[in-house]
Amino acid sequence: MTTALILSFSDLGRDPRVHRQIRFLAGMHRVIAVGYADPQVEGVTFIRVERGRKDAIGKVIAALQLIARRYERYYWRQARVRSALEALADVRADVVIANDIDALPLAVRLARGAKVIYDAHEYAPRQFENRRLFRWFFQSYVTHLCRTYIPRADAMMTVGQEIAKRYEAETGVRPVVVTNAPDYADLEPGAVAPGGRIRLVHHGRATPSRRLEKMIRAMDLLDERFELDFLLFGGSERYREALEQQARPNPRIRFRDPVPMQDLPRFLNRYDMGIFLLEPFSFNARYALPNKLFEFIQARLAVAVGPSPEMARIVEEYGVGVVAEDFTPESFAAAIRSCTVERIGAFKRRAHEAARVLSADANRETILALVDRVLNGAGASGSATPPRPISGGRRWIAEVS
Fold it and tell me: Which of 41, 149, 159, 178 gives 20 to 30 Å between its CA and that of 100?
């Protein structure tokens, strides 16, 4: 049996994308999972990596290294990278899978002749471009890692079509698209509540850049038929409190405790429509294709989104909901207001029809096939030809601005 080494600087039990990756491969390969916390998957060997913490002097040294563009020194002196190198010194694998750009250089070094697959997740050079700290210190560093190490990978994955196209323009190889769809949930569409009350729900992180207050403003523009529950976790506690304060005058908006990831579809099934208005504050936000969209569909809900290209494509292709004309609360409210009880029932039925196709089942086959192709000597597109090196990092970033 071949061995797959899966690297991720994350809590493997709480990282849905990486956890699915581990489970998919565990049935076909011997899997060694490396990260901050055990994924708790039967038959999988777990190796813990220490996060490491920088003191004030360490932070100053790190900043100076980044300013001086000593990117390789900065990378290899990180405590978590050194911890992984020490823990994996005697580990051998047939294929190494790196999750996110910060694991890719490590995967290339550890491969020792093994194949390397890079799961980029999103578009790394602009991952946090809305944050000054990232732009000042890390954007050129991340671009260096991409330019240097992506050409050394044998295959690549990412979350959506538009991000795949951008990587293809820079690497010469089209990454395989593996969405963030959750496991299939065996549920039935629920009926709209008696009296025509339409129950809306949004779940996710309380992150200020997502401008969740726009959905509160949209609720203020909707009539008494509509009520909204927020299930927020993580992010900024101060921001969550500000949202609650803003929503307090509207009794049709409630904030509920979050639900464990594995219980989400069944819990959400009691609602009628999942909503998400995501302003395109960055490249990755513009082309987001998040877990929650697929979780709404697994819950057999109607869906309302803004005109984010990837989300809008799924909603319109499968006929599961409505897309606002723009990202204003007024437009979002108008789209939701257009949904009669009959339309919502039809959207729920279409979500039910699409649930199997838009679940993790298809992604499982995609990942297993990709690993098999790589192990048999072919890249992501079936060709053993490696990607061309990425050109200058600053041009790379500028071209997508």
Answer: 41
Q: Which helix (H) or strand (E) holds 253?
A: strand 253-256
Phi and psi angles of residue 78, each rounded to the nearest 5 degrees, phi first:
-65, 140
The answer to whether the CB of 24 falls within 8 A of the CB of 368 is yes
Sequence-separated (6 or more) residues with CB below 8 Å from residue 281: 130, 209, 210, 211
Own/partner contacts of 250-253, CB < 8 Å, gap of 24 or more, are 250/216, 250/219, 250/220, 252/219, 252/224, 252/226, 252/227, 252/228, 253/216, 253/219, 253/227, 253/228, 253/229
- Cβ contacts of 58 within 8 Å, gap of 6 or more: none
399 by Cβ neighbours in 10 Å (0-12 / 13-18 / 19+) ranks as exposed
The contacts of residue 152 (CB under 8 Å, 6+ apart) are 108, 116, 386
In sequence order, which residues have a C-beta less than 8 Å from that of residue 34 and are 6 or more positions away? 5, 6, 7, 8, 46, 47, 48, 49, 84, 87, 88
Structure confidence at residue 64 (pLDDT) = 84
Task: Report strand pairing: 253-256 vs 226-235.
Answer: parallel
What is the C-alpha separation between 99 and 101, in angstroms, rounded?
7
* Rounded mean pLDDT for each run of 10 residues along the chain, 401 residues in total: 96 94 95 97 96 80 85 93 96 97 97 96 87 83 93 95 92 89 95 86 95 97 96 93 97 94 92 97 94 97 98 98 98 96 96 96 95 83 41 40 33
Other CB atoms within a 10 A radius of the CB of residue 21 amount to 28
- 348 with 318: CB under 8 angstroms? no
CA distance 348 to 192: 10
